[in-house]
């Protein structure tokens, strides 16, 4: 609503401008999203390039920053909301996230197991 | 008719929704669902990459090949292009055509810069003997990163087409709906790139 008031009823030929303006956020939301995305990009690159932390900590922070940055993009650039009219967008996104999770985690898990049991000759610890 | 009691702006947007059978929101939802299916396509490529990345067949590994400062520059170009597209959309919605065109041209140039860097990198890798046929790791790398690059290339063709549409017909409802879909596509590609630089380049370099 705040954004709609930034485009006060223009007498222009497009009556849906105010309605569309709501869906496109505001300059402030893009600036905010840009700064957050910048920080969430620089942190993981700096950690990997500088090797400041132990490997496990770096992996955790790098993956965490990626997930947070994806959410930042969804909120500030794609203007994903949880409101009434936006529900199906969110439902489709959640469904997709579940499928993506199953595809990726499942593939890595299954293939890791297969490598472990069948393909790669590993030095087995003595039983 | 309660609509008469509303202020002019609300009345205008209300009647636009009802009288013109505005297909904008439906089209946007349909395009969003396409993007989600594209997301699953990328998930399959990411999964293939994650599984195959250790399979370097005695060839070069990611840690030996990737230049992170180069990738960081690519990331900045794509992120900036997302923001310039956002400002372009705000100008387009505000019916400011010259301003919108300037932002769209900036977006196009940033996208072209990203794509040029990616092609340079691919060429450089192939010259170094790290071609798609060298190992399963590199096949998966070129497929995943190349598919993203192909999406960016198509996004740029679409953006050039939309700039021609806007110059010819102006910022009509139809063109705004199309631009809205393109902006979702463009922002979506930036989100996929977060996955690419995290899983391929950063994790690969660790």
From TrEMBL, chain A:
<feature type="transmembrane region" description="Helical">
    <location>
        <begin position="59"/>
        <end position="78"/>
    </location>
</feature>
<keyword id="KW-0812">Transmembrane</keyword>
<comment type="function">
    <text>Cytochrome bo(3) ubiquinol terminal oxidase is the component of the aerobic respiratory chain of E.coli that predominates when cells are grown at high aeration. Has proton pump activity across the membrane in addition to electron transfer, pumping 2 protons/electron.</text>
</comment>
<dbReference type="GO" id="GO:0009319">
    <property type="term" value="C:cytochrome o ubiquinol oxidase complex"/>
</dbReference>
<feature type="transmembrane region" description="Helical">
    <location>
        <begin position="34"/>
        <end position="53"/>
    </location>
</feature>
<dbReference type="GO" id="GO:0015990">
    <property type="term" value="P:electron transport coupled proton transport"/>
</dbReference>
<feature type="transmembrane region" description="Helical">
    <location>
        <begin position="90"/>
        <end position="112"/>
    </location>
</feature>
<dbReference type="Pfam" id="PF03626">
    <property type="entry name" value="COX4_pro"/>
</dbReference>
<dbReference type="GO" id="GO:0009486">
    <property type="term" value="F:cytochrome bo3 ubiquinol oxidase activity"/>
</dbReference>
<dbReference type="InterPro" id="IPR050968">
    <property type="entry name" value="Cytochrome_c_oxidase_bac_sub4"/>
</dbReference>
<keyword id="KW-0560">Oxidoreductase</keyword>
<comment type="subunit">
    <text>Heterooctamer of two A chains, two B chains, two C chains and two D chains.</text>
</comment>
<dbReference type="GO" id="GO:0015078">
    <property type="term" value="F:proton transmembrane transporter activity"/>
</dbReference>
<comment type="similarity">
    <text>Belongs to the cytochrome c oxidase bacterial subunit 4 family.</text>
</comment>
<keyword id="KW-0472">Membrane</keyword>
<keyword id="KW-1003">Cell membrane</keyword>
<protein>
    <recommendedName>
        <fullName>Cytochrome bo(3) ubiquinol oxidase subunit 4</fullName>
    </recommendedName>
</protein>
<dbReference type="GO" id="GO:0005886">
    <property type="term" value="C:plasma membrane"/>
</dbReference>
<keyword id="KW-1133">Transmembrane helix</keyword>
<keyword id="KW-0813">Transport</keyword>
<keyword id="KW-0249">Electron transport</keyword>
<dbReference type="GO" id="GO:0019646">
    <property type="term" value="P:aerobic electron transport chain"/>
</dbReference>
<dbReference type="InterPro" id="IPR005171">
    <property type="entry name" value="Cyt_c_oxidase_su4_prok"/>
</dbReference>
<dbReference type="InterPro" id="IPR014210">
    <property type="entry name" value="Cyt_o_ubiqinol_oxidase_su4"/>
</dbReference>
């Amino acid at each position: 609503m705040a954004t709609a008031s930034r485009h006060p009823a223009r007498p222009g030929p497009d009556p849906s401008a105010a309605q569309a303006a709501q869906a496109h956020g505001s300059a402030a939301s893009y600036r905010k999203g840009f700064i957050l995305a910048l920080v969430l990009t620089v942190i993981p690159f700096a950690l990997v390039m500088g090797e400041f932390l132990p490997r496990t900590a770096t992996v955790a922070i790098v993956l965490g920053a990626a997930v947070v940055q994806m959410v930042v993009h969804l909120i500030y650039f794609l203007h994903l909301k949880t409101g009434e009219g936006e529900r199906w967008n969110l439902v489709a996104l959640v469904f997709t996230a579940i499928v993506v999770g199953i595809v990726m985690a499942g593939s890595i898990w299954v293939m890791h197991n297969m490598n472990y049991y069948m393909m790669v000759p590993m030095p087995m610890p003595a039983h | 008719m309660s609509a008469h009691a509303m202020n002019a702006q609300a009345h205008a947007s209300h009647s636009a929704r009802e009288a013109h059978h505005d297909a904008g929101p439906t089209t946007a939802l349909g395009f969003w669902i396409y993007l989600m299916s594209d997301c699953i396509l990328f998930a399959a490529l990411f999964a293939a990459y994650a599984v195959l990345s250790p399979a370097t067949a005695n060839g070069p590994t990611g840690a030996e090949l990737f230049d992170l400062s180069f990738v960081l520059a690519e990331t900045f170009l794509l992120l900036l292009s997302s923001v310039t597209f956002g400002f372009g959309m705000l100008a387009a919605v505000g019916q400011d055509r010259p301003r919108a065109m300037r932002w769209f041209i900036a977006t196009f140039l940033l996208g072209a810069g990203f794509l040029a860097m990616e092609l340079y990198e691919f060429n450089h890798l192939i010259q170094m003997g790290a071609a798609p046929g060298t190992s399963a790791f590199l096949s998966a790398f070129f497929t995943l990163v190349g598919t993203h690059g192909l999406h960016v290339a198509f996004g740029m063709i679409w953006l050039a087409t939309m700039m021609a549409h806007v110059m010819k017909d102006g910022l009509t409802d139809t063109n705004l709906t199309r631009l809205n879909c393109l902006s979702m596509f463009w922002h979506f590609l930036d989100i996929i790139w977060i996955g690419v630089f995290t899983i391929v380049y950063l994790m690969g370099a660790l």
